[in-house]
Structure formats: C-alpha cells, structure tokens
C-alpha cells in the first residue's frame, strides 16, 4: 500500500484466499488518484466482503498478487486512445490480447464512457463490458464471477444482467442509469495525486444543454443532481481531511442549489477557514458575482468557459444558445469580482461551419481584448469528432488538410492579438473519429497500430495493411436509416429522437 494514501472509509480485513480482483487504470498512478470514477468503483468493491481488490496502473512496479491469483481484471476506459495503454498492461502481465486466446487467464472486462458509447471495436479484447453507470453492476458482476468457477457459465449469467454486454452472447443491452441520491467523492487522498490531496465531489451528472456533438451530455442523460444536504455533508467530510476541494459535473451550475453551496463555502472562508476550491468549468450563465467571489476567495485565479463557436449562428446549430452579449457580460462579472483571466474553449470543423464562422472567433477575441485590457484571455480548441449516441453521430469530419489550415490561421491571427491558443492535434482527432464510429473490423488494425508503437505513422500503416477505409469511419456522412455498430445499445432518448434533433439543428441555417 502506498504510504502517501489516506483512506476516507473503513476497510475490511480480508482473507488472502478470498476472490481476487484487479482494477486497472490505463495511465500513471498520479492520474489514477485524481480519477473520481475509477477510485469510487474501487471503494465500492473494496467495501464488499470476500473480494480482495488491488489497483493497478501503467507504472505499477510491484503487485500484491500474481496474475495467476487474479480471478477478475477490470479496466477503466475513458478515452479512445486508452486501448494502447490497456494492451501494454495486458502484455506486461503476459496476458494474450484477444479473449479467444486466453484459456486459463482471468475474465477481463471494461467500463467507462468509450465502451458505454460503442464497445464494438474492442469486442475481441474483453470478455464483457459494463454499459453505463457501473456503481451497482460492478459488484453484481464480481459476485457472479466469484460464485461461478466455469468462465463460460459466468459469462452466460453476466449476459442476463441489465447493463452488461457479453460479445459471446450478443443481445440488446440497456444502458444503466443510476439515481444520484448519494454523492460520489474522492475516497482516497494522496500527496502523489495529480491534484495533490484534493477532495473531488460530483455535484451532478449529465447536462440538460444537449449540445449536438456532446457525448458527455447524451450518454449521461437525464441530468441528475445530488441532494443539497448530502452535498454539504460530503463537503464537510472532505474538509475534515484536507483544505482542497473540487466540484465536478458537466453542468454543476445547473444544480438547483449551486449558489447555496457556493455561499456555504464562502461563509466558511470569511469565518477564517483556509479552503482552496476549484470547479471543472463554468457555463456563461453561471458567472454571477457570488459564484466568482467564492472562487476568488478560495484561491482560483482563472476559469474556463465553453463557448464552442465564434458566431451566434453556429452556436445555434450545435444547440449552444449563447449570445455575444451574454459572453461579454460574463467576462465583465469575472473581471469585476476578482478573476484574473478566462480560457475560452471552442471547436473547429463543426457541422455547417464556414470561413465566416472561423473569422468570427478572431473578431470575438479582438473585441474581448479591446474591452477588457489587462484581463488574461486565452483560447483552447479541439476539432469536431462525431460521437455515438449524439445528434451529430451521422456527420463526418472535415478533411484533415482543411482543418489544419483553419487551426494554423487561428493560431497565427490570435498570436497577432497577443492571445495564446492551444489546439489539439488534428491528425490525432482524425484517428479518434475512426475509433469513435468504428466496428469489429478494426480488431487486427488496433493490434497492428499498437505493435508498431502507437504513433500516427503506425495507425496509417496498420490501416493500409488491413485495408481499413479510415475515411469511411472518420469523414463520411451517414444516411439516417443506416444501421450503426452501437445500435444494439438502448440509450434514452433513443435513435429516433437523435435523428429529429439532428435534422432540426442542421436545418436552421
């Protein structure tokens, strides 16, 4: 056990001979210790009798158990490129990549946003997938595996559970959605976490804004909020261990008691408590004097605002109904109440985008710079990636050359204004789109890309070798009646609604 770790819950004393489970994070230890979902899943199983659970990261040197002792091996899968690290972790413990070649090895499964949205590119690597919120189903799955010695019998039983997809026994799978009556929080604090000794708590899950491209919004509908009393109790629990807290949620400011929570923390600071608090990001309409004052009192100097696009027209198309007036008003409140700067987050290559929309970003930046002299303004951009189970899942990406021209133009023009702009790699976003809308034909392509080092060139040559038409997945527009690889997953509000929403958004030009 890591000496820098502090557990915020009581652990069972378990017998060595009990059922053994590894829970893996495809990244380094410090990142795993700031991953709320991963740590919470660990806590829930750690609190379950007769199951020994151990955390494994990409940089884990020594393990308490040998792989031969492990009965069940689970992976958190949050980002498309995580498969590269997952493969390297399987190889580290001499586990064959394909489940069909694993014989006596433990059952291996994955959960998280990537595989909840579309597990098909990975179906040959995992014995089963958890689709949706895993809080309760993970424990059920572990218990089934514990009680069933034959792997195939266990998989049969697992395939009958709602929210579990077993590729060997394919059927319609319903995405799991948990009520948020309890607050999910950091159960283990560590000095070596990426966010050192920070107590993160989830205020809400999902987002009612429903931007047309946003997987985080659609995958987590409906918007659910933790009850106020439960939040306050959780904040107090965290503050009894550390003075650093972070509020998490795709739309925390939509919490009906968000302002009351801010006031509760602000009053504590004014009364002399030293509290450092941060929030994931803010919506423009959440930037009110009381919220900004709380953030500033809690030591936050900058915040992030997602505006997505430079023109009101394009913001309407993506369902981000936000006027320029609202943006300027938010910046004014932020500056007047003590924030030193704001980072604006946007996207390029959005459906229906024109050169005029790109130019609008420069115009907006120019106006902001002129009006708020001395206030630190920066921009961050990624390029549009079509995501499953969103209204824009049918829309292909713009070609790479054209997107790179836009990115270079933005960087150059913003630099002239003295504004720093960070833009994600257009080429990597392309391959992310291939994985995002991919299907089971990608199996050998993924192995090949990994074996050749997992860099951009490896993806290109793997696609060539296995005759993968990458553009079909990344840049092609699909017809609305096309069967999609993830259609076997039942996710509300459903395909019919997404179609109507897609047509409505794209036709309001």
Secondary structure: elements and pairs:
Blueprint: E1 5-7, E2 19-25, H1 29-32, H2 36-46, E3 51-57, E4 72-76, H3 82-92, E5 107-111, H4 113-117, E6 128-130, H5 137-147, H6 151-159, E7 164-165, E8 173-174, E9 188-190, E10 198-202, E11 204-205, H7 215-219, E12 224-225, H8 228-239, E13 244-248, H9 258-270, E14 276-279, H10 289-297, E15 302-308, H11 312-317, H12 324-336, E16 341-348, H13 355-371, E17 376-383, H14 400-416, E18 421-423, H15 426-436, H16 443-451, H17 456-465, H18 470-474, E19 489-490, H19 495-506
Parallel strand pairs: 2-3, 2-4, 4-5, 5-6, 8-19, 10-13, 13-14, 15-16, 16-17, 17-18
Antiparallel strand pairs: 1-9, 6-7, 11-12
Helix pairs in contact: 3-16, 5-6, 9-10, 13-14, 16-17
List keywords for this structure.
19 helices, alpha/beta, globular, 3 domains, 509 residues, Transcription Regulator spoIIAA, Rossmann fold, four-stranded parallel β-sheet, single chain
Please give a structural write-up.
This protein is of the alpha/beta class. It has 3 domains: 170 residues, 3-Layer(aba) Sandwich (Rossmann fold), CATH 3.40.50; 104 residues, Transcription Regulator spoIIAA (2-Layer Sandwich); 208 residues, Transcription Regulator spoIIAA, CATH 3.30.750.200. It has 19 helices and 19 strands. The strands form 6 sheets. It has a 6-stranded mixed sheet with strand order 3-2-4-5-6-7. The longest helix is centred in the last third of the chain and has 17 residues. 45% of the residues are buried. The mean pLDDT is 92.
